[in-house]
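Supplementary Methods S3. Complex input for the nicotinamide-adenine-dinucleotide-bound model.
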Amino acid sequence: MSETLNTQLLIVGGGPGGYIAAIRAAQLGVKTTLIEGDRLGGTCLNIGCIPSKALIHAAEEFEKARQHAEDGALGIRVQSPSIDIEQTVRWKDGIVGKLTGGVAALLKKNGVQVIKGWARILDGKTVEVQHEGGDPQRVHCEHLLLATGSRSVDLPFMPLGGNVVSATEALSPKTLPKRLVVVGGGYIGLELGTAYRKLGVEVAVVEAQERVLPSYDAELSAPVAANLRRLGVELYLRHSVLGLNDAGDGVRVRDPDGKETTLAADRVLVAVGRRPRTEGFNLEALMLDKAGHALKVDDQCRTSMRDVWAIGDLAGEPMLAHRAMAQGEMVAEIVAGKKRHFQPAAIPAVCFTDPEVVVVGLDPAQAQERGIDCKVASFPFSANGRAMTLDANEGFVRVVARSDDHRILGWQAVGKGVSELSIAFVHSLEMGARLEDIAGTIHPHPTLGEAVQEAAMRALGHALHV
Ligand code: FAD
Ligand code: NAD
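Predicted complex, serialized as structure tokens:
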């Protein structure tokens, strides 16, 4: 055993929650140590947000090329495009490499001590790090920040291995399957299912609920489902998965009437949710309070043990990178002596399907549940000039505002490229904007953002383009 290291803030996990906390704490002069067992950047940079968006982009470009080859409406002439998936994966890996290298450089520049190895909790102030082939290293701290993230949920009757893969393997395919069955029509299933379809793979999605993206309201998920069908993705809704068939080349499913069928598949992507990573590093020794599978935290991300903190996916829903980062930054500032609480007006959620979906703040049903008298108005992209020039006139922007003082409570949007509108939405909520503020702001023309202004105008009873 080597000598015990002493630090002020010890962070376990170098994903977006952990590395942001480390950078901010070090900026504020806190002696900070970060332990990462795998690769800096965590799920998000290595096997999540970034590689999935890279693959989605490549698939969209390929799909466009194929469309131009089939239909010359835009006057673009392309002949028989093909995809070299190994090169696509290399390109994606290059982006990941640049970003994770950037994280390492930022940690170094700010003076964070990074230890590579798997941490094992000894007590609320001591952790042991297991280096590959080396002696264990003990680290003693004043504050312990847990940021170990999450792992994918497995189906016990269809374990990962062989042709049954998780998002991680689906993001680095060596070859493309002929037919992919996706189990789970949520974020991962639909983002990656759509990408695979656009790469030319036959795709079927099996979803237990009655619609895809069941966590969003039906008006938002309907255009996504319609486009999946248009792309040729088969949707098996309200179906339960029973397992692989004996030959291993099909997925047995049961329909809502109890009838069993087998869906042919030479690859199966299981995407049925993620669970906080609480096991395998002796966390149980701390006997921290839990909230379901997650660690229970207060509005400063304090756990039930003094000076032990938890952020990101480990602290439960919503399991989103930007939430992990915001919590990490906050904890770093509290440890450095600042007064902070985690009370965002809203945490935006974006699903990078085709069309994209954005949800920020309250939707009409949630406002109604809270007994708030609301104005709700939508503006369709079919009436937006920019959307037409992008050949993307499906979808809409919807605003929810209080009837009494017109304060905006929420935005929802579905359409091509609406992920970028999420910033305008969340700004308006954080700044306590009213419908009049958005309606009275000059929005540049022609942009998709004009639909945001028009939705606010419509809620006030004077939309100009519908
Ligand atoms: P993680 O990023 O999971 O990082 C935890 C780190 O801790 C890991 O690097 C792990 O190796 C390390 N670790 C764990 N245990 C130990 C230990 N004992 N010792 C040392 N190190 C340890 N979110 C979005 O906001 N937008 C998206 O577009 C998006 N797309 C996604 C796509 C996919 C396919 C997936 C799987 C997820 C996606 N997410 C997305 C979710 C996002 O990746 C997570 O919310 C985010 O990574 C959580 O950050 P974190 O810091 O809490 O944990
Ligand atoms: P998810 O919760 O988004 O979707 C899982 C889906 O699987 C649900 O629709 C559920 O009804 C369905 N399901 C569950 N068990 C099933 C079964 N046995 N058979 C058929 N369907 C079943 O989970 P995910 O897609 O695995 O993603 C995990 C998390 O990762 C997300 O919740 C999100 O926090 C994060 N993520 C975010 C983004 C983004 O922000 N764009 C992208 C990917 C992942």
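The longest strand covers residues 137-146. The first helix runs from residue 16 to 27.
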